[in-house]
Amino acid sequence: MVKTILDFFITQIFQTPAYFMGLVVLLGCLFLRKDAKSTLISVIKAVVGMMILSIGAGQLKTASQNVIEIFTMRLGLTGVSTDMWTAVYAYIEELNVINMGNVAMVMITAWVVNLFLAKFTPIKTIFLTGHVAYCDSAFITFFLYKVCGLTGTSLFIGSVLTCAVYWWLFPAILRRFLTPMLGETPLTLGHNLCISGLLTTQLARLFGKKEESAENLKLSGWLSIFKDSVVAYSIIMSVIYITIILIAGPEIVAKKAGSTNYIIYGLNQGLTMAVGVYVLLSGVRMFLNELIPAFKGFSDRLVTGAIAAVDSPVFWSYAPNAALLGFLCTVLGQFAGVGLLALFGSPVLAIPSVIPLFFGGCTLGVFANAWGGWKGVIGATFIMGIVTICGSAGLAYVVGTNFVPGHSDWSTLWLAVMFIFRLFFGVRA
Known about the structure:
Elements: H1 2-14, H2 17-31, H3 36-75, E1 80-81, H4 84-97, H5 103-120, E2 125-127, H6 130-148, H7 152-175, H8 179-182, E3 187-189, H9 194-207, H10 229-248, H11 250-257, H12 262-302, E4 307-310, H13 320-343, E5 350-351, H14 354-399, H15 408-411, H16 413-425
Parallel strand pairs: 1-5, 2-4, 3-4
Helix pairs in contact: 2-3, 2-12, 3-10, 3-11, 3-12, 3-14, 4-6, 5-6, 5-7, 6-7, 6-16, 7-9, 9-14, 10-12, 13-14, 14-16
């Protein structure tokens, strides 16, 4: 009975961003002793806001994925998958076959440890991105099994402690570098972009000045229409996608477009990006308006000075133009990275996928803009694109798998950690 209830909570609440955030807001309101009416309004708005955010993010992902897959087919690329969810399912399947570790139990236990660490240490980060926590639990459990040969209780404890420390410590390290953007707002990033986010901010400083923000570019005449993020996304993404479509040709595009004219298909995908941005930003505003006040309840009653580590799209609203620019430069960087891997005869070729391209590129673009303006976005995200795809190939080689998570923390921090683990504790030849 207890296991059934726990499984329900993990699979239906914790892994569903909208419901998990609704639960967080509910607890915050209860800690603040809000009346029932105000609590109900806050919870509903938080849940709906997260659902709107997820719908917008889903539209962005789908539109990007379609065109990137067309481009990949045109280039004839094959190799290691860098799609996060593909890796999750592959890892869990292998762990289940050999009966090594319960990923859901790793996640919930690690999150409880995260709460204790936040409660009893000076670092007050609480990781609130449930679906990312689930993925991390699968990745860490799989890597510790494959690289170190851990099994049973040692695998469970090692996975729990590794996840808990990562969720608690690294978002806190990144937080001080987000101050130019967030001020004193009790937020930080709860995603696999923390160390890479820090690296991005420092790279951005080398390329530009934060005063030259991508959001404040001086555009005159007709160019002034690009000050509107919806118009900018519509025109820029439509032009880029139609160009890719033309390069790919109607025969390849037809595999995705069906009976739709291939140029119209490219236009549709570009405009869908604009729709997704508008929907996502609307959801972010609604969600944050409820989360930030409610989270004060956690700070007052549960963890004094608590900092919420939240999902990456939340930050795009701070600099939507920089997010777009970061995505575009990340795409260029990752495909340049593929070229470098091929040029130097790498034994592993990693293939770009849409989740790290879009969610990583947009987020790192916003962070880079806060420290280096638009020039910093271009330089830093292009370099991080190369680092991410090359690091993904390295991680696949070190771990011995054809599937890797793809986000840039796995290509930097975790690549280094797993290399050291393999060097000293490794079971692979």
